[in-house]
């Protein structure tokens, strides 16, 4: 096992994400720790609460988390507040589009309703934010785009870059 988190090394961490601002400041939107999930009332049976494992510096997690873990060691905990550009990005008004309701319903094989998730022809996932008889408005921004977020990160293990222990990837953009 390697002691310090550096680019190319594999970090195994528990993290908890909270909203940093607004009326819902402090609300947990993500955690890998079952104890935190239970304590915060966000536990779900259908979800596995397991440590996040990723190769540092390869874009598997949001930029602010990737940067925050660098230099940390196993057992160390750090809390960081991230601006949108280091987290889920700024809101993009161009990512909110109005589409023909009939075409959307035919393509997604569903009746359009507010808060339904839909997939674009390119594979982007968005949710319907408004619908009337003729059109539906779909927001393809990440749900946390434009929000400042806080992450508590606890490093559990660090492995060398040539360690075959990890299959880095997967859970990245959730964090």
UniProtKB/TrEMBL annotation:
GO terms for cellular component: cytoplasm. It holds the Pfam family FKBP_C. GO terms for biological process: protein refolding. Signal peptide: none annotated. It is found in: Cytoplasm. Its main location: cytoplasm. GO terms for molecular function: peptidyl-prolyl cis-trans isomerase activity. This is Peptidyl-prolyl cis-trans isomerase. It comes from Halobaculum marinum.
